[in-house]
Amino acid sequence: MNTAVFSSKFDQVCYILDKYDHDPHMLITILQEIQAEYAYLPEDIMTYVATALGISPGQVFGAATFYAHFTLEPKGRFVIKVCDGTACHVKKSTLIIKAVEKKLGLTAKKRNDDSMLFTLETVACLGACGLAPVVVVNEDVHGAMDGKKMEVLIDEIRERENAK
Amino acid sequence: MRNITVTVDGISVTQDGEKNLLELIKKGGIELPTFCYHSEISVYGACRMCMVEVEGRGVLPACSTKPEDGMVVHTNTRQIRDMRRMIIELMLASHAQDCTVCPKSGECRLQDISKQLGVTKVRFKNVPREAPIDDSSVSILRDPSKCILCGDCVRTCTEVQSVGALDFAYRGAAAKVVTCFNKPMAEIECVNCGQCVKVCPVGALTPKYQIAQVWEAIYDPTKTVVVQIAPAVRVALGEYFGLKPGTLTIGKIVGALRIMGFNQVYDTCFGADFTVVEEGKEFLSRLSAGKDLPLFTSCCPAWVKFAEQYYPDLLNNLSTCRSPQQMFGSLCKEELATKLGKKREDLVVVSIMPCTAKKFEAARSQFLVDGNPDVDYVLTTKELSLMIFESGIDFDKLDLSSFDMPFGFSTGAAVIFGTSGGVSEAVLRFAAESIQKGAMREFKEFRGTEKGVKISEVAIGDKLLSLCVVSGLANARKIIDKIRAGDLYYDLVEVMACSGGCVNGGGQPITRDNKLAIAERSKGLYDNDRMLQFHVSSENPYLQKIYSEDLTPQSSHELLHTSYENRKRIVLDDFVISGTQDGVKLTVSICFGTSCFLRGSQELYKKLTAYVHSKELGDITEFKANFCGKLCKKGPVVSINDKTLENCTLEMATKEIQNVIGR
Asked: Cβ of B623 and A8 within 8 Å?
């Protein structure tokens, strides 16, 4: 039996909306929790949230674009955050970024790979300068990285996913 | 309470209801420049043009400062003067410099204030915003590159109209006023009322002009061009030519249109008389049947779209009568074309309206016959003024002229359509007259443009009727929500989208003292009513002639009535909530639109997923959400495979699921 149906993301949206009693003042919290489910904020879900909260979709869009925390673009299942803060930068983090771009066929505009498995992001500082250059993949921190190690890491994740 | 007295540049001024320091300073005779202050909407304090120096407190924005007793205010110190000029220079530096070809040129606050402050040089490099023009809407042209982020449109759309089609998005230097998801104006919940156009101080929002198309029609020798003029235009157009608001200029307008080359000049009020008679009959018959009450008026196209989007369950209560513009259009294309021996396509109907939403109304599919619209082009009051200027007509010296017959004759009841309360009064006059001959009277309780909601009881015959006249869609929403909840009851509800009615339409002249202008224009219409021979629409002899000679009950229904459609707020595709990759045998599609949501579609969805789970059908089931917006009166709507279930309950849905899977 497919359990995906019954723990669907949309059920969670309904649950989240109910949990906050459809209170428009809780918009940001609601959007945060929805993003935790979808990994981004889809337009149709934002419209649904507007309907459910009795506000205009424009207001939801305004809040969603105001905070850098929210993303309106779908992301891959593995978000690779390469730190490009001062410490990581001098330790050649740009080479890691280039390596990931080359490996996954990404450009300055295209940040998701074709299989939607990976998304590349650069961040200003992760606060772990002792480990520079640092890369965080989802929740896992990898210190003292370089281009070669990055390629190996990507291959490993791919293999693991293919085996599933 | 002690009086609050403030000294403004040495003159002492006492507060008497003024809401803030800005208004008090104005009372003292100093008009501070502002971009973002409008008395009808909330104070935003964004433009910083109204900064004043308050002794002991420093430099403050007057709009968001409460007057306090003994305040000593200076409005034009060196510091403030420098500051204002600097702000204007910075605004100009990031603004497009194509003033000469801007549709707002002449009515632009940025132009005015730059001139007022004597800014003749900008010290900074010009780096205009770059953003494409959105010309998707038939009513409103949006040029975001001209936006100065005052937020007037955002607050008007949200606070006055409760629509919220425009809002701020992004942040800091990237902040912009956008439509939701950056969609084109034509695909969102904008009701086209044009109130944003009226408050926009620059050329970011303007009516979408159809002037070029109208000239083309006039120049085309194969076309007969007929023009109709709405009531609210005749008391406002003069303002473009230095006359006071409310000055009746109908004779000059007709004269100007003849010079420009329109073949026949008629009056929308003729159509309005038909609207009154049809709507009056409809009202009386609904009253006696006790069905589909309250009756909502339907002459305002912005309100109609609003109702279609937010109150689809009340569409049966909307009068089926076409608006005066559309009654005129269909009568023209049907009756007049026959009389003139013209083909429908060769008769071009142009209407001159105080309204941007009328452009949208004319383009509605209900008003097309074989692809040809009943009304071909709609010009706003503003566009008419531009055409008069373009023709070089000296409005001052212009000879008066009168309408052509028969579509140019109207009663006073039709003229007052142009102001809030006018439609109700016209319908009541008709109802009173048809119940008892000679019983017609004026219904002054519904007059005035100050109040957004006017409620009164009137006796018609032996019946006591309860009426509500509302203008401004946020006011309408409050009233309708209470009606829907059963807390309020009225027999007739008149709704006009713009505060004060059509006299304040989105296509009307933009004035500094809008409240006063609306009141004066409204008064102009009531004065005009008094000057006319008839005050009840059914007394119009030309209307009687058309009813008795040309119209059958069948054709009058076809030509004078219409239908409404449920509308999505914004255009979106269905999306899959959950499903399996393959082997889908059961597709359950649930509408989550506003109306279905209120009718419990979310609850139904939860129960259905639980049901599918308990029957172990998860492997073959796909759940989809949509915003169908088609059967809103019959929500919640659920489709199972190809079968659509209206007013769906869990029992109905499970029965159909069992049918499909054969268990």
From this structure: yes
